[in-house]
Automatic annotation (TrEMBL):
<comment type="similarity">
    <text>Belongs to the uracil-DNA glycosylase (UDG) superfamily. UNG family.</text>
</comment>
<dbReference type="GO" id="GO:0005737">
    <property type="term" value="C:cytoplasm"/>
</dbReference>
<dbReference type="Pfam" id="PF03167">
    <property type="entry name" value="UDG"/>
</dbReference>
<protein>
    <recommendedName>
        <fullName>Uracil-DNA glycosylase</fullName>
        <ecNumber>3.2.2.27</ecNumber>
    </recommendedName>
</protein>
<dbReference type="GO" id="GO:0004844">
    <property type="term" value="F:uracil DNA N-glycosylase activity"/>
</dbReference>
<feature type="active site" description="Proton acceptor">
    <location>
        <position position="65"/>
    </location>
</feature>
<keyword id="KW-0378">Hydrolase</keyword>
<keyword id="KW-0234">DNA repair</keyword>
<dbReference type="InterPro" id="IPR005122">
    <property type="entry name" value="Uracil-DNA_glycosylase-like"/>
</dbReference>
<dbReference type="InterPro" id="IPR018085">
    <property type="entry name" value="Ura-DNA_Glyclase_AS"/>
</dbReference>
<keyword id="KW-0326">Glycosidase</keyword>
<comment type="function">
    <text>Excises uracil residues from the DNA which can arise as a result of misincorporation of dUMP residues by DNA polymerase or due to deamination of cytosine.</text>
</comment>
<dbReference type="GO" id="GO:0097510">
    <property type="term" value="P:base-excision repair, AP site formation via deaminated base removal"/>
</dbReference>
<keyword id="KW-0963">Cytoplasm</keyword>
<keyword id="KW-0227">DNA damage</keyword>
<feature type="domain" description="Uracil-DNA glycosylase-like">
    <location>
        <begin position="49"/>
        <end position="211"/>
    </location>
</feature>
<dbReference type="InterPro" id="IPR036895">
    <property type="entry name" value="Uracil-DNA_glycosylase-like_sf"/>
</dbReference>
Length: 221
């Protein structure tokens, strides 16, 4: 795995790539991609960073690991490539936006359009084996992405962190709540949403209201 990441992030995360754990992680990922079908494609592993420069981050959404179905993952959490059917969690995200902001349900599930506006779509684990959810967890990715969250918290100003579900909520301890906006709610998966833990959270209008209040442009969700 060659680490090809946007230069704005290299300046912030460069030391992570020199750590022993990252060498072990790199060896593991290379072996997995050589022996198994894995997602996303190698060149898309760091896509979340390539589509959203460090200095432009104004919202962070945290997922757990990439979609493990064929052709789905594109390196941004909850996002799928153009023309791919929307997974259940993404459907519920779009439905909440529809209710919250009154905007029509979109055709494309590709969230690169959000990333281009400063939304960092960060999975805690950046790779996965096909058909095996969570198969690359506990190998070092979480240490790396925790460092990403800490860097945004420490060096960023007035960022909105959207923490959906128990796993993401546990990341709140990495964030300085005195200078950032932390929004928490249930996970958009059907299991959580159908129990009443997702719909009506109004995270998208709340995020935009906060961004406007600190002089930043709202996101076109």
């Amino acid at each position: 795995m060659n680490v090809k990441i946007d230069e704005s992030w290299l300046a912030v995360l460069g030391s992570e790539f020199e750590q022993p754990y990252f060498k072990e992680l790199t060896d593991f990922v290379r072996a997995e991609y050589a022996a198994h079908q894995c997602y996303p494609k190698g060149r898309e592993i760091f896509a979340a960073f390539d589509h959203c420069k460090f200095s432009e981050v104004k919202v962070v959404i945290i997922g757990q690991d990439p979609y493990h179905g064929q052709g789905q993952a594109n390196g941004l959490c909850f996002s799928v490539k153009d023309g791919i059917a929307h997974p259940p969690s993404l459907i519920n995200i779009f439905r909440e936006i529809e209710q919250d902001l009154g905007t029509p349900y979109p055709i494309s599930g590709n969230l690169e359009r959000w990333a281009a506006q400063g939304v960092l779509l960060l999975n805690a684990t950046l790779t996965v084996r096909a058909g095996e959810a969570g198969s690359h967890q506990g190998k070092g990715w979480e240490r790396f992405t925790d460092a990403v969250i800490k860097a945004v918290s420490t060096q960023g100003e007035h960022v909105v962190f959207m923490l959906w579900g128990g796993y993401a909520k546990n990341k709140a301890k990495l964030i300085d709540s005195s200078k950032h906006c932390i929004l928490t709610t249930g996970h958009p998966s059907p299991l959580s949403a159908n129990r009443g833990y997702w719909f009506g959270n109004k995270h998208f209008s709340k995020a935009n209201a906060y961004l406007k209040s600190v002089g930043k442009e709202a996101v076109v969700w």
